[in-house]
Amino acid sequence: MNKNSVLMPLICASLSFCANAEMTQIEDVLGRHVEVDTPAKRVVLGFYAEDYMAIGSEKAFDQVVGLSRDTWKSWRPQSWELYTSYRPSLANIPDVGEVEAQTFSIEKVLNLNPDVVLLADWQYKAMDVDLQRLKEAEIPVVVIDYNAQTLEKHVASTRVIGKLTGETKRAERIAKQYQQGIELVQSRIQQADVPKPRAYVEFGNKGPEEYSFTYGKNMWGAMLKQAGGDNIAAPFVEWWGPINPEQVLVSEPQVIFLAGTESRRVDGAILMGQNVTREEAQSRLKGFTHRTGWAQLPAVAEQRVYGIYQGASRSIVDYTMVQYMAKALYPDLFADLDPEKAYIDFYKQYLPVVPQGTFAVSLSE
């Protein structure tokens, strides 16, 4: 029996917020059935903080007692600054460390006495032995996954957050919005029945001098597939990793996408995101076109080179980036869409802050 199910009646006798609490069986994205007291009142959040707030509403963060802070503050510092300026209490949520950096602390999690620990699939799989200690402490662990970039897992993850926060109707509305956004792209492409353009996508965090990650089955690779592109890296990179520069040249991509963040630590790296001007973003894109051999690539010759925001992937709002990629690949099919505006509109509709900056840009603008 979950230790919280024993304590809950005693707590609820004196706390009015427990009036609607109940044990709910949640099926997570791994197909595991986990019993959780919902709406959850003490949540440790491993990743996807913006999605948790968008789906559960801002008040859901009143119940977040622990946070893997680096996945927000260090990975997306401008976003963290925007949110903490609006809601300073975010900075006071205890940090439990970060899985990838091997600083995640089970001791800190246990000391917070959570109702539930919500982890990304990649975090859950990396923790292994540490999860046994949570199991022994009878702390439920629920897994979601926006990194896979599939319609099924995006929708399932959104519904899980809706159940945990008690915002099932809001979650269904957001899940439906995502599903319709993806299906619109796929139905138009299917009806057009035209050849798939060859495309290459790279995380441009290392600057033009060094090839960084490209993507196969997940993240931008999966999004490129949703957008109807023929991913030149798919035969050579299963998940993510660098590709031989010669392979890019011989594959002759017709469209190139370069993802970037707000980080200015590396000279020439792609700049995208909050407080980045379109002129800055375009200038960095242009720098990549000077790579050896790129002038002869069809994508560069025809100026079909695009900047996309790394922070807009692995999220329920990333259907807007799929639409942007689809519009770049098939401009005539999607001339009526304004994906960057749709990205901002999502914030206006579901989140308490609205970022300003450049989140999608073309070399030819």
Give an account of the 3D structure.
- The chain is an alpha/beta fold and 365 residues long.
- Helices cover 40% and strands 16% of the residues.
- The chain has 15 helices and 15 strands.
- The protein has a five-stranded mixed β-sheet, with helices on both faces.
- A hairpin with a 5-residue loop joins β1 (22-27) and β2.
- α2 packs across α8 and α14 runs antiparallel to α15 (339-350).
- The model is unreliable at 1-19 (pLDDT under 50).
Give me some keywords for this one.
365 residues, alpha/beta, 5-stranded mixed beta sheet, 4-stranded parallel beta sheet, 15 helices, 15 strands, disordered N terminus, ABC_Transporter_SBP
